[in-house]
Amino acid sequence: MSSKIFKAILLIAFSTLLGTLLIITVCMFDYFGTVQKNQLVGELSIAARGTEVAGKDFLNQLDLKNYRITWVAKDGTVLFDNEINPANMENHADREEIKEAFEHGTGSSSRYSKTLTKKTVYEAVRLTDGTVLRISAGRITVFVLLLSMIQPILIVSIFVVILSAVLGKRMAKRIVEPLNRLDLDNPLENDTYEELSPLLRCIQGQQREIQRTLACLKQKRDEFNQITGNMRESLILLDNAGAIITINLSAKKLFRVTDTCIGRNIIEVDRHQNIRDFMQKSMENGHAEFRENRNGREYQFDLSRIVSDDAVVGTVILAFDITEQAEAERGRREFTANVSHELKTPLQGIIGYTDLMESGLAKSEDIPRFVGYIKKEASRLVTLIEDIIRLSQLDEGTDMPVSEVSLGHLADEVCKTLFDAAKSKNISLSWSGADGNMYGVKRLLYEIVYNLCDNAITYNRSGGSVKITVSEDDKNVRLEVADTGIGIPAEHQERVFERFYRVDKSHSKQSGGTGLGLSIVKHAVAYHHGKIALESEPNKGTVITVAFPKKSLV
Ligand code: ADP
């Protein structure tokens, strides 16, 4: 700053100095010209008077150092010259000042003298005898004039430099000091020079703008944190070098990290090879995804490259807990495979018997037996398909008609339906207890009672019993089906509710079981928001209890 001010002052001072010098030189040059002319005229007048009286002798005795005197005859012949031999001089009649003096008595001119080889001033006067006396002197030049002033110019220049440096420093201090004292947090409260007001107003405006923008950014960041903080999905934003910019609560739990991981590279924070590999893939392809088990649950990781203005600015990692979904997928796959298998077996049996009959290999007395097999397998297929349809209806959770149902009446109905089946196996079947009125889907409740009783008969022994008990209190209705059958070993008890799970496959199939009965029961109970419990001891029997809230479906 001081150096700039110094330079500016120096420039102004030197420009002024140069201008002044120019004017002074012009004035002085003019002044010295007039003085010289007057001196020449004075000297010429003295010399003219002397020449009038003593002629050449007067001129010869003159001690002339600064002037040149030339005496010219009427015809222009040079009679005398104090610097050059007149014999060597040409005729001077055509010289401007001499011509003028011949004509008007006096003459003057100024020109470059070939003789003296310099700019010369001439003054001439005609004497009484008609001759002309001329005096001349070298004209003072601008260069000489300047040369004569060199010393004062130098002194003034040095003075100007010193003065400019001192003034520059002082002015810079005076300008800068108030600037240094400025309170930029409150620009308009500064008491400083007026010229700064527009700047301070501008700063104030910009400050307001910055504050507004910051508040807006903060609000947006808070909103973002609020949204991502409450997300169940894990979210991590990385910059283009892989450093963590943002990580939400769910992701912190998943990766078992705290806020200190912000700014660190994801590869350092999470040492799993998959993250490293799929980061690379997402950088190359724009997107990558993988599944991985973490903390005992299954997660899907989605990695997407973020591009802005054709440049990669970062990566976003989203992780979803897909444990239930994956289990459901697995279940569906297993179910499809089981369904295919279960459908295929009876169909193969049917095709086998029909092939035998068609080829004529079957004896005519065997044909009724084969038809019986075919009928049995076909009805197994129908039962299986009906069970699958029921299960898929329950899976879809479609609304079914709800009405007031008496569980006691249903138990009675089931007893009547299964009476023959129980009797054929020498099993006593009975029900007792309350009406057990509740709101529910009659068809589903019937299925529950029927399947439980059917199993209790199927997996029983000759001479055994099946007892159905219905009880109720203010809130719940309970159904208990107890048998004295083969029982279920402890390790199978959890799994008998799975689709197509059978403890003894051959026994189940022989008795026409589909392996879906208890699965349907479980879903139908869940549909009514009920609870199911199983107690069983091998060779002693099984007790299955179901508790329904009376008004859960109202
Ligand atoms: P299934 O059509 O084979 O009877 P379920 O789903 O009804 O299929 O039953 C699954 C398996 O549970 C049966 O195969 C059987 O092994 C066992 N099970 C069910 N109920 C009883 C019971 N009361 N006593 C003993 N085992 C049973």
From TrEMBL:
InterPro entries assigned to the protein according to its UniProt record, in alphabetical order: BphY/WalK/GraS-like (IPR050351), HATPase_C_sf (IPR036890), HATPase_dom (IPR003594), His_kinase_dom (IPR005467), HisK_dim/P_dom (IPR003661), HisK_dim/P_sf (IPR036097), PAS-like_dom_sf (IPR035965), Sig_transdc_His_kin-like_C (IPR004358)
Recorded GO MF terms: kinase activity
Transmembrane segments: 9-32, 140-167
Compartments where found: Membrane
Keywords from the UniProt entry: Kinase, Membrane, Phosphoprotein, Transferase, Transmembrane, Transmembrane helix, Two-component regulatory system
Record-annotated Histidine kinase domain positions: 338-552
Reactions listed under catalytic activity: ATP + protein L-histidine = ADP + protein N-phospho-L-histidine
Enzyme class: transferase
This enzyme's EC code(s): 2.7.13.3
Pfam families tied to this protein: HATPase_c, HisKA
Name of this protein: histidine kinase
